[in-house]
Amino acid sequence: MKKFLKAVSLLLIIVTVGAGCSDNSGDTWSEDYGLSDISFPLDEKVSLKIMTESSSLAPENPNEKLIFQRLEEETNVHIEWRNFTGATFGEKRNLAMTSGDMPDAIMNAGYSDYDLLKLAKDGAVIPLNDLVEDYMPNLNAVLEEAPEYRDMITAPDGNIYAFPWIEELGQGKESIHSVDNFPWINVKWLNELGLEMPTTTEELKEVLIAFRDSDPAGNGQTIPMSFIINDGGQDPGFLFGSFGLGDNWDHTVVTNDGEVKLTSNDEGYKEAIKFMNELQGEDLIDIEAFEQEWPTYVAKGQEGRYGIYFTWDKANISGMNDDYELMPPLEGPDGHKNVARTNGTGFDRSKMVITNANQNLELTVKWIDQFYKPTQSVQNNWGTYGDEDMQNIFEFDKEENMLKHLDLQGTAPVELRERTSVGGPLAILDSYYGEVTTMPEDASWRLDLMKEVMVPHIKADNIFPKVFFSLEELDRLSKIEADLLPYIERKKAEWIANGNVEEEWDEYLAELDRLGLQEWLDIKQEGYDRSTN
């Protein structure tokens, strides 16, 4: 009976919402202004109604941001925002699209490829090919300079359904995204204890034992090694490269022969797990490493308790000081040394979509095209200049016509970015640095570390690209991954914590096959071949 009542209640909610939006649909998208051959600024101000997501640190009304105020002055287009934060945005976005209570467009949309293609199939979002070609000179200039992005935003059916976000920071192996889980080691403790930087996995073990026994943090507070298992940049998978293919956040690598492989069924993966379990058996691993969340991880790092830990940027954990340095990749027991590349890129396929309720397509896409002007993209991505009420991330050098990053005087770049930038569709190409803007100091520093420490030991010439799979392929991948990936990650944590990887390995491989590994690899391989040929 309870289930029946719940079902009836849900049906009533859906009917009520549907009925309500049919009576008030004019409130959610703009009237047809009948404009054509548009150039900015418009003679008379008009408005568009756009849904978006922004940080909880940002103003509740996006129009309070200087970037949007300037854009309104330049275009004479006022935006009526429906702005949400966190999980609320996803709920409101989905409700708007399923109920028909649609805005003109959704910015910072955050759709997965599956959701985007499903909405396109249902006609809720519109194809953009002709609009991009006819009305978006700034985006077309980006696609002419970097034509690979045209392929990346084009669905298997030949249509473009969303506007992308592009942020280039280095190319190939030297891309800032090549490795996310940098290992940061406490060189202050190494010096205090007269220890050398480890160069092998065995030397690392000896260093961690020295940290444990000497307790340099004092009062038993020393944690020789910490991480957050299966958490991207905080995962210890960097160490797995000393034993074989290594590991990364999606457990997928591509060999130099173009073969897509799963990292987690490699023999070297098993040996890496055994090594990690040895460290666990010696009480060298944080007892909370298998369950802690980010705030706890940061808090202990800020107290200086870690001998070694893993993350993208040490500034977020132990601070931008000299106590920690990047540990180079280590040789394994057989002399093997490899740094597994991640499959990350500065690219998001669906930063903005236009709904089928929009009656002002030329106006909307010409407004969106302003985001792809180089100086506008730079500000949308990082923040702006000349704000008298907020700290600025840039100064504008009129003589050089360039946006230059300011010294933030201790302010966290991420925090300032969330307060003042607007995100959305944009493009920042490597060619912009030194011409349109300076490179952020923290990014330049990380790129130098990547080049000096990591790149010489990255064996893979390829990564798995941002393949745009078909709806049918995505359906199969998602169904397989729903069981396959959690199983892989659960066994990884269990084996590091409790051992038994050798005894359970054959059973584990059989279970991977049962869960659809071969079909998963076949689909991935077909997608890779299609996107690289």
From TrEMBL:
Classification via InterPro entries: Bact_solute-bd_prot1 (IPR050490), SBP (IPR006059)
Signal peptide (from-to): 1-19
Source organism superkingdom: Bacteria
SUPFAM superfamilies reported for this sequence: Periplasmic binding protein-like II
UniProt entry tagged with the keyword Lipoprotein: yes
Keywords in alphabetical order: Cell membrane, Lipoprotein, Membrane, Palmitate, Signal
Gene3D superfamilies: Periplasmic binding protein-like II
Name of protein: ABC transporter substrate-binding protein
The organism's taxonomic lineage, starting at the top: Bacteria, Bacillati, Bacillota, Bacilli, Bacillales
